[in-house]
């Protein structure tokens, strides 16, 4: 299973950035993740207007991730 990792910075303090994990609902390969990611981070951006997404990537998820 894959997750999308968003690297985002605060709009009011662009020097403060952190990563956020968005798990994908289904088992997917890297290509599927790349094609499916934009709607996920668009929704995340709408729900978190105080953050600005700088970059994103797809990574493998594991049961030990939090």
Show unreliable segments: none
Which strand-content bin applies to the residues?
Answer: 35-45%
Secondary structure tally, helices: 1
**Distance separating the two termini:** 14 Å
Report the mean per-residue pLDDT as an integer. Answer: 86
Largest sheet, order of strands side by side? 2-1-3
> Total domains, how many?
1
Query: What structural class do you assign from the helix and strand content?
Result: alpha+beta
Strand element count = 3
Shape estimate: elongated
The share of residues in helices is 25-40%
**Main β-sheet, in a few words?**
3 strands, antiparallel
Q: Which tags fit this structure?
A:
single chain; alpha+beta; 1 helix; elongated
What does this protein look like?
The structure is a single chain. Helices cover 27% and strands 39% of the residues. By secondary structure, the protein is α+β, with helices and mostly antiparallel strands. The chain has one domain. Strand 1 and strand 2 (17-23) form a beta hairpin. It is elongated, with a radius of gyration of 12 Å.
Strands, helices and their partners?
Blueprint: E1 2-10, E2 17-23, H1 30-47, E3 51-60
In short:
This protein is of the alpha+beta class and 66 residues long. It has one helix at residues 30-47, and strands spanning 2-10, 17-23, 51-60. The protein is built from 1 helix and 3 strands; from the N terminus they run ββαβ.
